[in-house]
Amino acid sequence: MKAIILVFLILSLTFAQEVQVNSQIQKKIGIKTIPAKYQEVSVYQTYPAVVNEDPTLSFSVSSSVDGIVDSLYVKQGDFVKKGQILLTVYSPKIADIQANIEMAKVKVSTAKQVLDREEILYKEEVIPYVRYYNAKIEYEKALGELNALKKMLNSYGEIKGNSVVLRSKTTGFVADIKVVKGSPVNIGEQIMLIHSHERLWVVAQVPFKDVERLKVGQTVFVITLTGKKIKGTLSYINHEIDPKTRRNDVRVVVENVGNFLKPNLFVSVEIPVSSMRGLVIPSSAVFVENGKEFCFVKNNDKFVLRKIKTGQKDEKYAVVLSGLREGEEVAYTGVVFLRSSIFGGAGE
Amino acid sequence: MIDFILKFKAFVIFLLFLTVAIGYYSFKTLPIDTFPDPTPIQVNIYTDAPGLSAEEVESLITKKIETVMSGIKDVTTVRSVSLPGLSYISVFFKDGTDVYFARRLIMEKLSDAKAQIPQQYNPIMGPNSSGLGNVLIYALVSKNKSLVDLRTIQEWKIKPLIKAVDGVEEISQWGPEKAFLIKVYPDKLLSYGLSLDDISNAVEKNGGVAGGGFSKTSEGDLIVRSTSYITSIQDIKNIPILSENGYYLKLSDVADVEVGEIPNRRGALTLNGEEVQGNIILKRVNTNTKELVDKLYKQFEEIKKIIPKDVELKILYDQSYLTQKAVSTVEKALIEGIILVSVAMVFYLGNVRSAILVVLSIPITLLMAFIFMKEVGLSGNLMSLSGLAIGIGLFADATVVVVENIFRHMFHNQENLSKVDIIKKSVKEVIKPIVFAILIIIAVFLPVFSFESVEGKYYKPLALTIIFALLSSLIVAFIFMPVLSYYFLEKPKTEETKIMEFVNNFYHKLLNRVLRYGKPILVVVVTAFVFSIWIFTKIGTEFAPTLNEGSVLVKSFLNPNVSLEEAKRVASIVEQRAKEYPEVENAFSNIGRAEKGEPEDVNYIETFIILKPYDQWKNFKRREDFENLLREKLKDIPGVSFGFTQPIQMRIDELLSGVKSTVAIKVFGDDLDKVNQIGHKVEEIVKSTKGAVDVETEAQSGKLQLKITPKKEVLSKYGLSAQDILSIFGKYFTGYEANYLKEGLITFPIILRLPEDYINNLRKIEDIPITTKDGYLLSLSEVADIEITEGFFKIRHENGIRYALVQSNLEGRDLGGFINELKTKIDKEVKLPEGYFIQFSGQFENQERAMKRLSIIVPIVVLLIFMLLYINYNSFKDALIVILNVPFATIGGILSLYLSGYNLSVPAAIGFIAVFGIATLNGVVLISYIRQLVLEGKSVDDAITIATKLRLRPILITATAASLGLLPILFSGDIGSETQKPIAIVVIGGIFTSTMLTLLILPVVYRLFTKGA
After folding, report:
1. Three-class SS state of B920
2. Do B573 and A22 touch (CB under 8 A)?
């Protein structure tokens, strides 16, 4: 039975290989054509994703001494520049050190005076060298003590008066402040968090079957809710599948120019999952009849049926391996009309 | 009796006025219709099954219902069509079954059937309307309003008003229905860990109303009601779907909410290239079309007042226009007939007074016939009124003879009788032969009542009205005319007009010659008869000539895989091309199906092309020419085949065979592939046969399907059931009504669905997330096989057997010959496997059945005439001589039919029946008189001379009257005349030869017979 159908088909093919359609009708029933072109086309697929902070761009602000918040220059959400003063912390320890420094300074100057006197006396050979030597040691000791104290103070960072000045180490946002004026702070405790959103991570959940086509370093696009398209780089493919979603997390690093992205925002990521190179035509131009692939090639007012063979093919494009030359125009919409005019009245 | 009548002359006159008054009233109030509704009693059953393929619809629904229905009493045929998403079954009942009874029977069985099909599908009975129920099509057009808004106006403002009109069964509405669409993005759900069912639950539970009974408080007795209607799009957007710590996620966070149309529309109506909101009003069975349409027009005036100013209600088509035209055609023919007959009367009688009486008798007879029609409930339609138009010359016959006899006796009043006595004498003289003659004509029409089916429905009314009118003419002639003659007629000065004298002289010279060469002339006549029989075999056959409806219907068949948008493009081209002709008034198309209607899909378009009146046609003269022009013009649209017909014709064709073409060839068998394949072979044969146009094998296969088959083993691994997967498609793909939005009195559905870019994208379909009970997430492609396959598009059954369909229209050829050629060709070239068979249906079935019946009826008619003659004369010989008129008439009838190019059809056959009666009448008039003279002792030759002299006038009068009455029909080109023309042609031709031969040959034969005896 199949054979008979085939015979019919072959008969009909030998008789009607082309369809004449004038341009007016073409327009009216919506037949559009496009020339076949050697090119590379990428096929993009979008996946749901969420924006995360780049942890390498986050800074925690903490005090180097125990103390009390003296003054607070920023509030939550403020934009801060690198080096901007955030807050000062008053510390009795610093005050202690400052006092000791004062003491040490006095000691140094006293020792200096003693040393100067003893030096004159020694030069005039009033006193023996040992005494002069002792005075010199005393002075250097005092100096050393002062320096040690100063170093100690410096180790607490920038100091202003009895307070430690805390400056932002990066440009970003004040994400979190845990203190108010007068709050006690302990050493090692996070006082505030500064984030930089100059660069963000976008984590997409990609079905495993699509992951194998991805490459780290590949350029991808992040599409925001408002439709903004932002360039990013695929930086990491998780080594594990999320057990709940059965999907693979894929990280994209995005330079947040224009500040369109924010952490925890749901976005989509457009990833070129495949790219094809060759003689490309829209896949809607190709149709299958009895297991063979065909398309219609425009020749003035005529559409000629052409048997072709395609290689890679997806939703949008198909690569023609044989049967078509570059520059030939193929019909890619309204093909159904051409098709049924060759393969039987209304269908079949 | 005549004594009695002449005694109470005043009373008779009063009766006459009464008759005229009642007759006029009956005429004015007579229900008017185009033609008798020929459609059989049928009940349709629709079952919507969105998303099911044709194969599934067939096996799960159609087959089950069909089996139950075929067991019902008086069911003749069960036809069905299974389409993707729709099962349509027509159950046909025996003629004469009460349609309400039939519907009740179906109703009873429907619950049986329902128990056997999957419970979510609900079979419903179609509207109680016949195939000709599409009485009026109108559209709403507006520059500013969207189609959705127009549909809402139609649905909520106009529909209730139209349905209130008595006789409206249903309105089939086209155009998009307003709905609020929730397009849920599965991606977004994924982010929040929600499933589609969570959303549907949320939407279902938010909004509605609950009654709480009554509460007796100090305020009084209160009705408790709790309402939480969704009343705006904002309400929908704000539906909470997930709440945590007092925050909640709104529906609009995961879905687009918008105003749109109910998805999966499978039809549209376009007018002059643009889509409009169209509506078809279906009338209830047995409702008079004209009356209903008149009522509707009145109602439209009211409706126009309440619809917004910028909305225009356009009436595109109304079936009654044909009624008006057809009826006015007949009326015109009647009036012209009366005038022509009147002129002839004056000419023959030469006496104005008697002529006036004769002429007067015709309208009185007609009015009386209307009284009869009204009493038996016969509507005034093309067929019943044709009966009057055709018989118009006959109705004067009785009066002519009566008045002429009175007239003659007044002139020859030798015994000086009083006026009353003259009338009495004259009437008594002719009463027997006249009653007998009229009875003969009535008798010949009686067998017509044995017609069945369509031909019965068409031609019984015709026969009935003729009989009514003939009976009325007897009453007029014997009750009213004697009295009127008494008041009106005076003794004439001359008996014969000059012209009559001349004619008489000429005739007798001719007759004498003929009598001299009796035998050779007889041989010539016999040869002529044999020759005409030979010609008869050359005449083509058909059921009935096609009625011109003044509009053309173009059917476009597209590939089953086209979309509605593509179909709209084609419709618009067809409409625009048609509109290029100035003769085209309007062109509009319906594509696919409305909510209740045709079992068609978007690949089928019907374009109505309404033509301007006939006299404004310039580029073409005949409808067929226009069709050819258009067919040529549409040739360059690739991939579309066209068929041409007319709106009503198509409906009738469809009801006869289930197919919308004249010829349907059905290939029955089990294997759909095989029957289709044979169908294609048959198509080739039909195409190669002369006369075939618009040949088309219906596309039954080749519909592409997206087939999703759940993988059972994967599902069981995750604890999912197949139903979980299927419901995604059943619910969220097709879109399901989760709730409704209330806007005042109007409610709109809220439909939950996946967004289009999911539904129309294979990759996205693969990625549709499926959540398991444990909260795992899978994609569809992991749990189901997704593939594109080719499936069936339309599966037809007749009495439970599958069939493929080849359809064709016919041009320039007779149906009978065409079918015969096809039959022999197919027999020779197509070898059918066992269990497969081919059936021809369509108009051809009618023709075959009617012709078979006629082949019995006609001999019976002749026999009947012979019997009556024999009873009358009590002489085998005389009866035989008179019946010679039948072959005489046949010669003329056949020749005129052949020369006019008309086919032998049922109306032509009826023409033959009529002319047999009329011709016999002539013979009776002549032979009776000769017999009488011979009995009085005159020699045969003398008797012949006297009889031919005296009877020439009445014979000529009846013959001319009968033919002249038909003349207007013959030359009319108006709508409706085509069905009467064959009758007119046959009758005129038959009367011509039979009259000539009666006057010339009958005397010869009579002489031969008597001399020989």
Report:
1. helix
2. no
Find the largest Cα–Cα distance for chain B: 129
Tens of pLDDT, residues A156-202: 888 888 888 888 888 888 888 888 888 888 887 888 888 887 888 88
Decide if B636 and A340 are in contact by the 8 Å CB cutoff. Answer: no
Name every chain B residue with its beta carbon within 8 A of the beta carbon of A294: none
Closest partner residue to B777 (CB to CB) among A45, A246, A339 is A246
* Residue B501 contacts A where some CB pair is shorter than 8 Å: no
pLDDT band at B125 (very low <50, low <70, confident <90, very high): confident
Chain B residues closer than 8 Å to A336 by CB: 558-559, 561-562, 566, 639
Determine the Cα–Cα distance for residues B922 and B955; give it in Å rounded to an integer: 6
The model carries a pTM of 0.79
Which pair of tokens denotes residue B692?
């075939």
In this prediction, residues B860-871 reach a mean pLDDT of: 86
Q: How far is A311 from chain B (nearest CA, A)?
A: 18
Over the stretch B328-387, which tens digit does the pLDDT of each residue have? 877 888 888 888 888 887 777 777 787 888 888 888 888 998 898 888 888 887 788 888
Residues A207, B767: C-beta atoms closer than 8 Å: yes
Contact B896, B536 (CB under 8 A): no
Beta bridge partners of A294: A287, A307
The contacts of residue B78 (CB under 8 Å, 6+ apart) are: B66, B69, B70, B89, B90, B91, B92, B797, B798, B799, B800
Q: Tell me the mean pLDDT in the region B7-19.
A: 86
Q: How far apart (Å, rounded) are the C-alpha atoms in residues B105 and B684?
A: 43
* A166 touches A85 (CB < 8 A): yes
Out of A139-148, B170-179, B722-731, pick the least confident.
B722-731
* Structure token digits, residue B786: 């997704």
Query: What single-letter amino acid sits at B482?
Result: P
Which pLDDT score, from 0 to 100, does residue A346 have? 42
Backbone angles phi, psi at B309, to 5 degrees: -60, -35
CA distance linking residue A335 with residue A316, whole number of Å: 15
Encode pLDDT of A198-241 as tens digits.
888 888 888 777 787 788 888 888 888 777 888 888 888 888 88
Rounded distance between C-alpha atoms, residue A280 and residue B722, angstroms: 39
The answer to whether A48 contacts B191, with C-beta atoms less than 8 Å apart, is yes
Alpha helix ranges (H) inside B634-783: 647-657, 672-687, 712-717, 722-727, 756-759, 762-766, 780-783
Contacts of A102 (CB under 8 A, 6+ apart): none
Q: How many residues does chain B have?
A: 1013
Q: Region A1-10: what's the mean pLDDT? A: 50
What pLDDT does residue B21 have? 92
Does B1006 score more than 80 pLDDT? yes
- A337/B639 touch (CB, cutoff 8 Å), yes or no: yes
Residue A193, min C-alpha distance to chain B (Å): 25
pLDDT at A247: 79
CB contact under 8 A, A21 and B190: no
Contact in structure between A202 and A267 (CB atoms under 8 Å): yes
Closest C-alpha to A166, from A77, A55, A74: A74
> For chain B, what is the mean pLDDT?
83
- Are A1 and B674 in contact (CB < 8 Å)? yes
Q: Among partner residues A1, A22, A347, which is closest to B699 by beta-carbon distance?
A: A347
Judge: A346–B698 Cβ closer than 8 Å, yes or no: yes
Nearest Cβ partner of A25 from B562, B573, B698?
A: B573
**Helix, strand or coil, per DSSP, at residue B756:** helix
B512 touches chain A (CB under 8 A): no
| Helix B382-395 and helix B906-935, axial crossing angle in degrees, nearest 10 | 20
**Residue B561 contacts A, CB cutoff 8 Å:** yes
